[in-house]
Amino acid sequence: MSSKASILAAIKGLNMKEKPLPEIPDFDVAPDLIEAYTHSLNGNKGTVVSKEELEQLIAETGFPKIYSSSPSFATFTNCELPQHPADFADLDLAIIEGQFASAENAAIWLDESNLDLRAIPFITAHLVIVIKKENIVGNMHEAYKRIGATKSGFGVFIAGPSKTADIEQSLVVGAHGAMSLRVVIL
Amino acid sequence: MSHPENATVFLKDKERAKWHDDTLWIVRQKRDVTIHQIPEWEKLRELASQIKDHTLSKLDFYLEELEKNATANGIKVHWAENAEEHNKIIGKILDEKNCKAIVKSKSILTEECHLNPFLEEKGIEVVDTDLGERIIQFLKQPPSHIVMPAIHLKKSDISDIFHEKLHTEKGNVDPVYLTHAARLHLREKFLQAKVAITGVNFAIAETGEFVVCTNEGNADMGVHLADTHIACMGIEKLIPRRKDLGVFLRLLARSATGQSITNYNSHFRSPSPGKELHLILVNNGRTKQLAREKFRNSLKCIRCGACMNTCPIYRRSGGFSYGSTVPGPIGSILSPGIDLKKYSTLPFASTLCGSCTDVCPVKINIHEQLYEWRQEITKAQGASLKGLSMKLANGIFKSPLAYKVSGKLMRASLKTLPDSIIYNPLNAWGKGRNLPNLPEESFKDWYKKNRNK
Ligand code: SF4
To answer: Which pTM was predicted?
Structure first.
């Protein structure tokens, strides 16, 4: 018997009585979604910045390698999309559009339609995600309603920069992936 | 060695034991702070519990759904009856790719299956990429906690091993410095690896996708740079619908560390063009646990670690004292199902205070199951073993009064006992216990109700 057959047979053999699958109700959400979002993002060690603040940061910092797939910041792109993601190992700043975000935990949904390469938001040294204020929803239930049945090969909720607390529970930002996350709410 | 013997070893370093205890308690408190911001918390736990109960009751159906939908998405699905088969499947894929080095992100299942030694024997370099996992891998230790694998180590230990392995400055214990040294080291590994292995937090039958949650982004760094992604999951990781993730992602990180969500929550549905995606469904004793009605719902576990952080015994005896892949209260229910003899002392490594049950986001009745295991073990060992288990069973369970008294003492001790009493060297783990937030129904009440059943 194949392992598949034996595993399934072992379960079927138990003749378990089916238990009900609950429906998920709606829950109250924060009255001011932008404020709640900003608060949640701060908790995850990310920050909300304005368009102007971001432009100023880029001007002052002079990041050598910038890739923007966001039309709002298209002019900052100064490199080509590589064939292989490893060639983005020296990417300093990536600017991406997010589809929507959940205020309760700052998680922003991105899928392949936002990611020219799946690796971009992870491999870049610094990450900026641009969202529209009308696309901030209250909680994860509303977020999954928005995702619905879309069929992207890859999708991700990003809620902050890469971080770890594995050394004596001290929080350190910038473990493997992006060392900062800035969110521009347009 | 039994749990009490191991615990005695752990408690020898009094200062470190106290630090361990305090650190985990802080994590537990962070969890409390976060969940109080969610008015529907109890409702979410109930939903999660019901969704998991439902899934387990139709597990065969959902597994086939998952396979069908994942296959249609271009994922190669494999089934493994046990750890050996799981390892062989991975070995075969690596052989086909002629792959000699892999990166792996935190997966308790691969630990359970002893994948690392298997691959290393084949001459394959395995790099665990979660920072905590990498640290313990350098030290050739197993994880001592399922969410915080290196929680038993001090920064001076980590500084020493990094000095040896990564040539960091001797004596530099700054966590930022050490983390960035690891970042540089691991980045090199990510850029070279052709195959990446990850665990799975949730698999969704309806869509044939699976979700991996990390804070470090190590799973994503691995898989998006590699050509082949192999994901390994126990068959209990299933949930029916995509929208069920809304419930579980709200519960998981809050229960684990008090964060509102992990920073990266990646949904893998199909491979990138030109790449390969494998999903291995592993049994390894899970259908046996499913068959044990009393212990069935331990399979609802989403591995958040909250029951460990809150457990007075875990905090004061350390993860290694359990000698099992999954330590702490949930490990003490799962492990005896795998090897009753080897793990016979684990169900006794508990005060039955019920705090584990209280914090569990999927409402597993952990402390009741611990009690059930004690009964089974006492029965199995019969008259032949008048050891610890019998003593405990007689001393505590046949004398509700004794429990009531000691329970009262325990309740009082949390706030009032000075550390010098709790950490008195004469005090074995079982005595110096305190009680975190008490469950609404204490064990005593539960016992009273159930005694005559
Ligand atoms: S048993 Fe519950 S509390 Fe413990 S790890 Fe599993 S889900 Fe978390």
So the answer is: 0.89
